[in-house]
Write a structure and sequence with these properties.
Oligomer: single chain
Low-confidence stretches: none
Distance between the termini: 21 Å
Strand order of the largest sheet: 2-1-13-12-16-15-14-18
Number of strands: 18
Helix content: 10-25%
Shape: globular
Strand content: 35-45%
Radius of gyration: 18 Å
Order of helices and strands: EEEEEEEEEEHEEHEEEHEEE
Mean pLDDT: 96
Largest sheet: 8 strands, mixed
Number of helices: 3
Length: about 280
């Protein structure tokens, strides 16, 4: 039986992941996942595609959900009382992949810390309570500031198969964190089994398959150092994982159909399979 072996949330889009033994599964994915966004001038979002040093910023949301701590090498930790955007809090216009959103700016002090850490003018914003973004795919859903869907699922079998191909060519394997999954699954023999899942129960929740995860240049960033180290894994993925819609796929995206608590060790029980 397939089981959950890792749970990782990314409270600040583009920044380091936060592993957990258990987490609440909300309509927008794991609790706090991609609730925050770093933006540059004009409110345009920052991504590891152009700002790989985001990877070395390690966020931690307090148990009460009202406090955020940011850590980065060579900088003092920054502690923030989160502006949740309730009441009459002002909204800011931000842009992600060309789409406009409204967000709650978190103030000048954290903006200064981020600007100094990244070496570029930056601000931190959060999804407002009225955030109602709809995600596409076979199963529609919602998410915060994720690239698209609420959850990214990847199996150890898929990574092992990829790394066998990479090492056969004489290059070092890549770690799981290059792909920034939310749920890592073990127990399947065949790679890419997650591509065929259509509905699944896990912990107290239920997920529906949305689409394949199309990979980008973020996979070329060392998540520990914030440096670009390519060409792997994209070079090897291009040899066997090209998809008709363009790009290379690795892992799958899911929408949340039912909320609940999920924990490492939970069964990842597939209730409906696809034929592809």
């Amino acid at each position: 039986m397939a089981t959950v072996v890792e749970l990782i949330s990314y409270p600040v889009k583009g920044c380091a992941g936060v592993p957990a033994a258990e987490a609440e599964l909300t309509p927008a994915g794991l609790a706090h996942d991609r609730s925050f966004l770093v933006v540059g001038p004009g409110g345009v979002f920052r991504s590891q595609r152009k700002d790989p040093r985001l990877a070395v910023i390690r966020p931690q949301v307090g148990a009460d959900g009202a406090h955020l701590t940011l850590n980065a090498p060579g900088h003092d930790p920054f502690h923030l009382d989160i502006d949740l955007g309730t009441g009459s809090a002002a909204r800011s216009d931000v842009e992600m992949f060309g789409a406009p959103y409204r967000a709650v700016d978190q103030g000048d002090r954290v903006a200064g810390w981020l600007s100094e850490t990244l070496g570029a003018e930056s601000r931190l914003v959060r999804v407002p309570p009225e955030h109602d973004r709809e995600t596409d795919g076979l199963t529609p859903g919602t998410s915060g500031f994720a690239d698209s869907c609420a959850l990214h699922v990847l199996s150890l079998a898929s990574l092992d198969d990829l790394n066998r191909r990479i090492t056969a060519a004489g290059r070092p394997p890549v770690p799981m964190d290059r792909f920034r999954p939310n749920i890592v699954v073990d127990g399947w023999d065949a790679p890419q089994t997650e591509d065929r899942v259509r509905r699944v129960t896990v912990g107290g929740g239920e997920l529906g398959f949305a689409k394949l995860a199309i990979r980008c240049a973020v996979t070329l960033v060392n998540q520990q150092t914030g440096g670009k180290v390519g060409p792997e894994p994209l070079r090897t993925l291009a040899s066997y994982r090209r998809v008709p819609e363009g790009g290379v796929a690795f892992g799958s995206k899911f929408a949340v159909l039912a909320t609940g608590k999920v924990a490492v060790g939970d069964a990842f029980e597939v209730t409906e399979w696809g034929t592809d």
